[in-house]
Amino acid sequence: MLRPRWFFQNFSEDFLYAPVLSGEVRLPAGSGEEAFVDAEDIAEVAVAALTEAGHAGWHYELSGPRLMTFGDAVAEIARATRRDLRYVPLTPEAYADEQRAQGVPEEWVQLSAGLYEYVRSGGLASLGDGVQRALGRAPRDFSEYAGTTARQGVWNT
Q: CATH topology for 2-151?
């Protein structure tokens, strides 16, 4: 069983991509820490678990090598891109209001607000050792991801 954390790629391929391009990532995560993980590490662990002996019955907690806030992640992207980019911590109420104003369905507003509450409260402030155990190497660091992604021009505006 693979249990990944928030993906690095959320900032470059998914729901945080547009906010990064806009220059302002507005979330109700406060200063809660998360152990973001590279989706490429998740894929490598999955391949190893499915194709190599010795993984049956294991549970892999997949995270990056360090705890970071969303503010830390945004700051690393700003450094890598040399762009003015900032994280704006919102209250859960302000976040929900902004999401509703953008036409986000109420079900998703409530789900995402709850996920950010879990981050904000410190519920995800732990590291997993799954990448190391499954692959015999440390997980990729967010700074490497940010640098590589910036060099590829993904966040060019």
A: Rossmann fold (3.40.50)
Pairing type for strands 68-69 and 33-34 reads: antiparallel
Closest by Cα among 28, 36, 6 to 114? 28
| Strand ranges for the chain from DSSP E | 2-4, 24-27, 33-34, 60-62, 68-69, 86-89
- For every residue of 77-110, DSSP letters joined together read HHHHHT---EEEE--HHHHHHHHHHTT--HHHHH
All structural domains of the chain with their residue ranges: 2-151
Chain mean position to CA 32: 12
Model-level pTM? 0.93
What's the pLDDT band for 119 if we cut at 50, 70, 90?
A: very high
